[in-house]
Write a structure and sequence with these properties.
CATH class: Alpha Beta
Mean pLDDT: 97
Keywords: Dioxygenase, Metal-binding, Oxidoreductase
Low-confidence stretches: none
Strand order of the largest sheet: 11-6-7-8-5-12-15-14-13
GO molecular function: dioxygenase activity; lactoylglutathione lyase activity; metal ion binding
CATH superfamily: 2,3-Dihydroxybiphenyl 1,2-Dioxygenase, domain 1
Largest sheet: 9 strands, mixed
Helix content: 10-25%
CATH architecture: Roll
Number of domains: 1
Structural class: alpha+beta
Pfam family, one: Glyoxalase
Number of helices: 5
Number of strands: 19
Shape: globular
Protein name: Catechol 2,3-dioxygenase
CATH topology: 2,3-Dihydroxybiphenyl 1,2-Dioxygenase, domain 1
Radius of gyration: 18 Å
């Protein structure tokens, strides 16, 4: 099942703030294999398939380093199409000595964790077949176990990494939030996602279509964590894609009922979540 096309609602793009644009371009190009789709002044749209933006990086004036203990980006997650492609990424990162922050088996997926030069968190992962996912009382069974690195590397024996494959997509986004209850109301009652796993009062994983998660929300930076400065390293905005204009309008009406105000252009709606993270709501946006 494809969890990142209609009729699902999902995250398609992430816009990051970086401190040094050239340094970041070198990382995303040389290390991961992105290429420039569009560039204007201090903002660059990056692509993997040559036609669609998956990541935007921007260096604002007087850019500030990543601010600790704030709301915003925990990590964005790039979903590769096969285990073999994930194996090639692992072998590549080990060969060049790029530091990994983690490598985990989540039962529904296998994942590698790293960060860009500014400390923006990145997950690169592959999904197991959704028919093999386990569900218990409406919650997907996910855990964090050590990755079988040797078994994974065996998948890429003799292969050369030539960049993330063009089929790679933005699989999910994980955010630090200020208050979990407020975030749940905004993202579930408002945007229309459903809780598929709840980690006590610390984190929520939410999705549409019974994906293991399109969004993760946590208070691991502290309850009441403030929003970072607008020019600080982290997430500037992300894109939520709805299957139809009607579905998007219904979400906007629900959010307005909850007291959230949106702004509208000819094609898109813009909102800010209760923790200060901005998003754009689009329909089949490319």
């Amino acid at each position: 099942m494809n969890f990142h096309t209609a009729p699902q609602t999902f995250v398609q793009q992430v816009h990051l703030i970086v401190k040094d644009l050239d340094r970041s371009l070198s990382f995303y190009d040389d290390i991961l294999g992105f290429s420039i789709l569009n560039r204007k002044d201090n903002k660059v749209e990056l692509t993997l398939d040559g036609t669609s933006t998956i990541l935007t990086i921007e260096q604002p004036q007087n850019a500030q380093p990543k601010q600790p203990r704030t709301a915003g980006l925990y990590h964005f997650a790039l979903l590769v199409p096969t285990r073999k492609e994930l194996a090639k990424v692992l072998r590549h990162l080990l060969n060049i000595g790029y530091p990994l922050q983690g490598a985990s088996d989540h039962l529904v997926s296998e994942a590698l964790y790293l960060a860009d030069p500014d400390g923006n968190g990145i997950e690169i992962y592959r999904d197991r077949d959704s028919g093999d996912w386990q569900w218990n009382n409406g919650q997907v069974v996910m855990t964090t176990e050590p990755l079988d690195a040797e078994g994974l590397l065996a998948e890429s024996m003799g292969m050369v990494f030539e960049g993330l494959p063009p089929e790679t997509i933005m699989g999910h986004l994980h955010l630090h939030v200020s208050h979990l209850e407020e975030a749940e109301a905004f993202y579930c009652k408002g945007l229309g996602f459903e809780v598929v796993q709840r980690l006590g009062n610390q984190a929520l994983f939410i999705s549409t279509g019974k994906y293991h998660h399109h969004l993760g929300l946590n208070i691991w930076n502290g309850k009441g964590a403030p929003a970072p400065a607008s020019n600080a390293v982290g997430i500037d905005e992300f894109l939520v894609v709805y299957p139809t204009n009607e579905a998007r309008k219904e979400a906007v009406i629900r959010l307005e009922t909850l007291g959230f105000v949106s702004t509208q252009t000819e094609t898109d709606f813009y909102l800010t979540d209760p923790s200060g993270t901005k998003m754009k709501l689009a329909v089949e946006y490319q």
